Amino acid sequence: MLDNKKKKNVRACLGRREIRIILQHMATSPFIHAPCAYSPIPSSNRNKTSSQQQTSIPSSSSSSSSSFTFSSGTNSGHGHQGLRAQAMSTVTLGKSIASIGNSKSDPDHLLVLVHGILASTGDWTYAEAELKRRLGKNFLIYVSSSNTYTKTFTGIDGAGKRLADEILQVVKRTKSLKRISFLSHSLGGLFARYAIAVLYSIDTYNRDQLGDLANSMTENSQGTNFSRGRTIAGLEPINFITLATPHLGVRGKKQLPFLLGVPILEKLAAPIAPFFVGRTGSQLFLTDGKPHKPPLLLRMASDCEDGKFLSALGAFRCRVVYANVSYDHMVGWRTSSIRRENELSKPPRQSLDGYKHVVDVEYCPPVPSDGPQFPPKAVKAKEAAQNAPNTQNTAEYHEIVEDEMIRGLQRLGWKKVDVSFHSAFWPFFAHNNIHVKNEWLHNAGVGVIAHVADSLRQQEVLGILPASL
User: Fold this and answer.
1) Residue 288 belongs to some domain of the structure
2) Phi, psi dihedral angles at 227 (to 5 degrees)
3) Where is the sequence biased in composition, kind Low complexity (predicted)?
């Protein structure tokens, strides 16, 4: 019989052997094509990490434009071109991540699922069960319930604050948590973006043994762009994933596809929207607030007095946007994939290996810029769009604001995943298919959920390996 000390040594050796097996899978599988951290450190020197420096870009004193105070969470040592990913295939790791990363049965990775407009926790029934099955006990999968149904009409900021409070309560109840990720559908992605800005910073929640938690997170972050002290609710941020989220709002040509791009309908939609969906409607159509103040979604593409929105996003190791290229009646391809119209190109029609209807993956490194601005011409255009909307002035206003939002969000690296349900039995259900709202009616999206689960497993492995070897 072995004594306790020898048993521990045997278990340690077994752990290293399992990790070597995983590394072999990673080396041979096209699924692990590139990490999502977008670190400028060469792969050969990944163990030599350095903390990200936050630089403050002062507001311009020029009379021609006004800019936000911006604290950058980006890395600028990249080219401006994204890399096309190879076809991705499922990785079979043999054992669950839980058996490698956590010797106890308590979960240490919180995955928050956030639903969209006029929805409820029931929207995640299939995805929650599938994620639990695929990810193992190391993940605590929590479905947010603080913004159900008409609560989604009270504004992105109000819903975001409620979501932040809800997450804090979960963290307080579960002392074993060390990492946090988000998976959001539709409007829920904007709620989550607001919530993480509220939760951003190490002092957001004073956990017991905070020093031990910080040390643990520093160890796990080797080889990533995560720097000590940048936390969400006191936890290390890993994945921020959105499915068909209108990151640029819904104003403009075909951003709200069920209007069919008809100019008169798009012109009337903005003033009517608040009557149907409340404060959230004006925020999505970029007409909220006084004329001289940038709309909320533009402020959320920066670090400003309302919150460190970009720094909070930049703290995550991986940011992924899934976008329907067609047949989505609620959210257009451009706004959900954070692209300009001239950046949209005809996607492949063939699904990636093992992930039906997932047709393309593109890795987009950060694009250095001076951040978003709200120039005087935008102020005038906003006032005209609010008081006397017509096709010309609303189009001008939208073009200005959309370009500035993209400029701000592109300061971070993103993985952009295109989804096409053109061959599905019910392609017009694309908006609900993408997260399998109903297992029987929207089951065309099961390949998307599988792709999400394997992406989460990939980042979990990448986070565990440096600390384990």
Assistant:
1) yes
2) -115, 150
3) 49-72
**DSSP run (H or E) holding 324:** strand 318-324
CA distance linking residue 419 with residue 358, whole number of Å: 5
Mutual orientation of helices 156-173 and 263-284 as an angle, nearest 10°?
A: 40
Full residue range of the structural domain in which residue 188 is found: 69-93+106-468
User: pLDDT tens, 256-282?
Assistant: 554 545 565 556 566 666 667 788 988
Contact of 31 with 90, CB cutoff 8 Å: yes
Domain count, the chain: 1
pTM for the whole structure: 0.76
DSSP 3-state of 71: strand
Q: What share of the chain is helix, strand, coil (3-state, %, to 5)?
A: 45, 15, 45
The span from the CA of 35 to the CA of 279, in Å, is 38
- Burial class of residue 9, CB neighbours in 10 A (0-12, 13-18, 19+): exposed
If we measure between CA atoms, which residue out of 72, 68, 77, 73 comes closest to residue 56? 72
Question: Got the DSSP string for 120-166?
Answer: -GGGGHHHHHHHHHHH-TTEEEEE--TT-GGGGGS-HHHHHHHHHHH
Closest among 352, 337, 465 to 35, alpha carbons compared: 465
CATH of the domain at 464: 3.40.50
